[in-house]
Design goal:
It is built from six helices and eleven strands. By secondary structure, the chain is an alpha+beta fold. It has a single domain, classed as q2cbj1_9rhob like domain (Jelly Rolls, Sandwich). A seven-stranded antiparallel β-sheet has the order 1-2-9-6-11-4-3. A hairpin with a 4-residue loop joins β1 and β2. α1 crosses α4. The longest helix is centred in the middle third of the chain and has 18 residues.
Length: 230
């Protein structure tokens, strides 16, 4: 259910009204459950390391069993979905213009709308792996940084001859401004992002750059929020 005028409060909120990007700390209890789920899936991912490609989106599109490189939350799923719906309500309170997007063909009043979690998946990224520019389906999308095995300083100076050397390890949004010019917003993801969640419009293009200064996994949890008639 969507309730106007009842915005929950979250710690360390960061809001970009131009892009519709919202960040906050995930509920610590829910995050620890989610992290336990994510860490528990690593062994299966390691077994498939020989079948992985640097471009994770291409790997997802190929005819390869998805359980070899993605898993889903299990024991944490119910609590995490409940928290996601609270956060989505906060998002709508923060960005009231999103109400227009809620009114799809068979929903003509805000009070008739209900949000639900369409999909959840856990991403495991090894060094040099990346996600190219893409978007999602639904109304809202999100990412939770569950494990980031490097600090921002670790990545400085890596890939010195790369055109994207200043973006190593970053999460980047790509959008157009009111004049039609292409703009980017880079998030300097490192260990300090663990436990943070970012909610953004599902149709906003984004990409994830590779990291290098670690042999461990970078783990995130992503998914989509949709709207339906109650």
């Amino acid at each position: 259910m969507l309730l106007k005028g009842n915005k929950p409060q979250y710690n360390n909120e960061l809001i970009d009204y131009q892009t519709g990007i919202y960040m906050a700390d995930l509920n610590p209890f829910v995050f620890q459950m989610l992290k336990k789920d994510a860490i528990g899936g690593i062994d299966k991912i390691v077994e498939s390391s020989g079948k992985r490609k640097h471009d994770l989106l291409k790997m997802f599109e190929d005819d390869i069993p998805k359980e070899l490189f993605f898993t889903e939350p299990t024991t944490s799923r119910k609590a995490f979905e409940a928290e996601l719906l609270k956060l989505s309500q906060t998002y709508i309170e923060t960005f009231p213009d999103i109400e227009a997007e809620l009114l799809i063909s068979d929903i003509d009043e805000f009070s008739q709308a209900e949000l639900y979690v369409e999909r959840l998946w856990i991403n495991y990224q090894r060094p040099t792996e990346f996600l190219p520019l893409h978007l999602h389906t639904g109304l809202l999308s999100f990412v939770v940084w569950t494990q980031v095995p490097y600090s921002f300083d670790d990545q400085l100076g890596m890939q010195a001859y790369s055109a994207s050397k200043d973006r190593v390890g970053k999460f980047e949004f790509v959008f157009s401004n009111s004049l039609g010019a292409i703009r980017t917003l880079d998030l300097p993801v490192d260990k300090s992002f663990e436990g943070r969640i970012c909610v953004f419009p599902a149709k906003m293009y984004h990409q994830v750059y590779p990291f290098y200064q670690s042999d461990d996994f970078r783990i995130t949890v992503s998914g989509n929020i949709r709207v339906r008639k109650k």
